[in-house]
Design a protein that fits this description.
This protein is α/β, with parallel strands linked by helices and about 220 residues long. The protein has a domain of about 120 residues: P-loop containing nucleotide triphosphate hydrolases (Rossmann fold), CATH 3.40.50. It is about 35% helix and about 25% strand. The strands form two sheets. The chain has a six-stranded mixed beta sheet with strand order 6-7-8-3-9-10, with helices on both faces. A hairpin with a 5-residue loop joins strand 1 and strand 2. The structure holds adenosine-5'-triphosphate and magnesium ion. The site of adenosine-5'-triphosphate has 13 residues, from helix 1. Adenosine-5'-triphosphate binds next to helix 1. Its main location: membrane. It comes from Stutzerimonas stutzeri (Pseudomonas stutzeri).
Amino acid sequence: MIRFEQVGKRYPNGHVGLHELSFHVQRGEFLFVTGHSGAGKSTLLRLLLAMERPSSGKLLLAGQDLSRISNAQIPFLRRQIGVVFQNHQLLFDRTVFDNAALPLQILGLNKREIGQRVMTALERVSLKDKALQYPSDLSTGQQQRVGIARAVVHRPALLLADEPTGNLDPRLAAEIMGVFEDINRLGTTVLIASHDLALIARMRHRMLTLQRGRLIGDGEATR
Ligand SMILES: Nc1ncnc2c1ncn2[C@@H]1O[C@H](COP(=O)(O)OP(=O)(O)OP(=O)(O)O)[C@@H](O)[C@H]1O
Ligand SMILES: [Mg+2]
């Protein structure tokens, strides 16, 4: 699914965000990327989204070479990916349903198809009964779950999340991680950037550890 081969990222100001990073991710895996602030976690995710280009090396996603992808191909690439942010970035003047429907409206699907897929996505995050409410009526954890529903509504092969539990208390954070595990069980590859080591250690998934842009660990998280 993902293949980093000696990928380097040097920002225009000369700062090196990633140094010769190499690792592979199989389809269907669940893994964390961890490391201190500035280690390069978000840089790694932005490379996968083609928001940034590698400065060196080769980066493959589902067989597509992201080091050489044209701008015209980027929208097609992103249809294979769902993204969850720390601040879920919901639209507060739209219902839960409409928030989750956004990616499908952009794809131009018909109303019936959108209705079915949105309700399936909301069911996956246990929010079917909140479809017609507004984000302001929901708890923080529920809002984050709407963000996850929106990220998976177009059935991406890969789900990326950047500090998705950063604003949540430990109990809610564990609950949200459980939602990611449920989605992974249905076949989606899940990659989560997080520095919540205590939570990650309990989950026993693969963990890549970055330190100042270098990969210094790759294995099951342990305490
Ligand atoms: N656009 C940019 N221009 C220059 N340097 C950048 C840019 N974006 C990130 N960096 C630098 O690259 C390094 C990695 O940043 P990145 O955002 O990937 O870290 P991170 O691991 O996500 O940190 P955090 O936990 O704080 O989110 C940092 O030193 C950062 O200052
Ligand atoms: Mg970051």
